[in-house]
Amino acid sequence: MLVLPIDGSQTLLVLAVPAPQFKDKANGVAATDRVTGAPLVEVPLALTVEGGQPQVLRVSVPQPSVPKDLAVGQMVRASGLTFVTGEKNGRAWQIFRASALTAVKPG
User: Which domain of life is it from (predicted)?
Assistant: First the structure.
């Protein structure tokens, strides 16, 4: 497994409201954070790059660490943002994780 930290000082644009993540969607078993046991949500965020195209990141975050009033179009910062990649059962996988999202005040 490879874990790469991403600069958390960059602002990210919220593209959709948080959606629950499932360990077993067919049986309604929620995915949980391995450290805290909190349910996980996925939040699509856009990372803007000066002079380049924005990159869409589907970020997994513990649900209690997401602002309750998070809205599409809002700017946030992702604490502890990392890119994680690995392989399981011969299949490669990759995800973005953050420990928390914090709303950025306009202005």
Answer: Bacteria
The whole-angstrom separation of Cα 23 and Cα 33 is 11
The pTM is what? 0.85
Residue 67, φ and ψ in degrees, nearest 5 = -55, 135
**CB 93, CB 86: distance < 8 Å:** yes
State the DSSP string of 13-47.
Answer: EE-S--EE-EEEGGGTEE-B-TTT-PBEEEEEEEE
Is it the case that residue 61 has pLDDT exceeding 90?
Answer: yes
Q: CA 51, CA 35: separation in Å to the nearest integer?
A: 38
Closest CA to 104 of 11, 2, 17: 11
Q: Pick 2-103's CATH classification: 3.30.420.40, 3.40.190.10, 3.40.50.2300, 2.40.50.140.
A: 2.40.50.140
Any idea what DSSP says for residue 65? G
